[in-house]
Amino acid sequence: MELFQIKVQTTKREEIIDITDKIQDIINHSKFENGLCRIFVPHTTAGITINENADPNVKIDFLDILKKLIPQSSNYRHIEGNSDSHVKASLTGFSQTVIVQNGKMLLGTWQGLWFCEYDGPRSRTVLIALER
Amino acid sequence: MELFQIKVQTTKREEIIDITDKIQDIINHSKFENGLCRIFVPHTTAGITINENADPNVKIDFLDILKKLIPQSSNYRHIEGNSDSHVKASLTGFSQTVIVQNGKMLLGTWQGLWFCEYDGPRSRTVLIALER
Amino acid sequence: MELFQIKVQTTKREEIIDITDKIQDIINHSKFENGLCRIFVPHTTAGITINENADPNVKIDFLDILKKLIPQSSNYRHIEGNSDSHVKASLTGFSQTVIVQNGKMLLGTWQGLWFCEYDGPRSRTVLIALER
Fold it and tell me: Which residues lie below 8 Å from residue B95, measured CB to CB, with a gap of 6+?
């Protein structure tokens, strides 16, 4: 298992950043041909999912739907004002696994890897483990 | 790692199809005894989860609850009319991993693998990776 | 792959139990140094996620937010009174994977492993697979 990490700088409280190219770059540079690529987010108010990378409006709708479901302000007990962010992160998930074949991630036509910031702006870390 | 794929034909906009038997068939045919079975959905409006395979009403309630939470029509920006499907798919997730022991998936008594269609009817693909 | 299991006794209908230490104990006892630790919940009304282990209020808010989103009572078809639990479990997820390096799980500073009971009190099982 080879371990890498990348930094993601977010600029808003809620923001989706497509990191597909950054992950593919790591695969290319390590000459990783076949196996599994695992991506981990070591945070509790940011997550990672897979979704459409074509129309940027899908990202906007995604964040709007989550915001409507889980409002930022309510009678929360946690006093840091980010209880919504913790829940959104868990529902999104903290890791994704992608099959790599002949040096390319086996993603569907419309699939991209979305880093989901729910309590930014922050400087975030993403771990990548490649398993031959 | 051995890679397989199956086709799933869905017949409604929202539909849950238990694919546990199809996955077990692949394990049987490849004489896979011990290791991990990974299942991937390479789409952005369909997902995969694990849930009860006994009472079919659990599937109906599941889809109804999601539909009530995330309505199909709202002030969405994405004009294809499936913003709800994208969010439901991400909340469901796009991959599951199951331990295989002595040729059988280590699922709980009530667990089955649910293919979750959120924007059908469509012809869908599911990828299966077996790791010894 | 080495396989272990632990028991988790829950005491309420909805409850989050941090099982990070129990998992680390298994890693310590098996002298597992580097690889992946996978955790599986073989149930359909309990799940596992990763979230903050510092302020216990995050757990309370988490359960309250889910309860408000998915009420226990509604016009559900499934007559066991736990349709909400099935959906909450699927949205939480049934497995997590963590990288282990030098005998320690590579979790973020605030991350802990949360066993999420949504239909307790029950005696639950958690499977742990260590892959060198």
Answer: A96, A97, B38, B39, B40, B41, B48
ipTM for the predicted complex comes to 0.96
CB contact under 8 A, A90 and C65: no
Contacts of A28 (CB under 8 A, 6+ apart): A103
The conformation of residue B13, written as its DSSP 8-state character, comes to S
**Residue B125 sits in a domain of what CATH number?**
2.60.120.460
Tell me the β-bridge partners of B105. Answer: B100
Q: Which H/E stretch holds residue C18?
A: strand C15-18
Tokens, residue B42? 């390479």
Q: Under a CB-based contact definition with an 8 Å cutoff, are residues C37 and C44 in contact?
A: no
Contact criterion met (CB below 8 Å) for A17 and A124? no
The reported pTM is 0.97
Tell me the per-residue pLDDT of C40-95, one tens digit each, with 9 for 90 and over.
Answer: 999 999 999 999 999 999 999 999 999 999 999 999 999 999 999 999 999 999 99
Residues of B in Cβ contact (< 8 Å) with A97: 38, 40, 95, 97
Shortest CA distance from B50: residue in chain C: C90
Contact B20, B107 (CB under 8 A): yes
Residues 6 or more apart whose CB falls under 8 angstroms from that of A86 comprise A44, A45, A78, C51, C52, C58, C61, C62
Q: What total number of domains does chain C contain?
A: 1
Give me the residue from A51, A91, A99 closest to B86, CB to CB. Answer: A51
Any alpha helices (H) in A4-130, and if so which ranges?
Answer: 20-29, 56-69, 83-92
Q: Least CB-CB distance to A91: which of B41, B91, B131?
A: B91
Please tell me the distance from the alpha carbon of residue A1 to that of residue B34, in angstroms, as a whole number: 20
Domain encompassing residue C86: 2-131
Say if the Cβ atoms of A95 and C91 lie within 8 Å: no
Outline where DSSP puts E strands in chain B.
2-9, 15-18, 35-40, 46-52, 95-101, 104-105, 111-117, 123-131
User: Under 8 Å CB-to-CB from A29, ≥6 apart: which residues?
Assistant: none
Spatial contact of C44 and B51, defined as CB atoms under 8 Å apart: yes
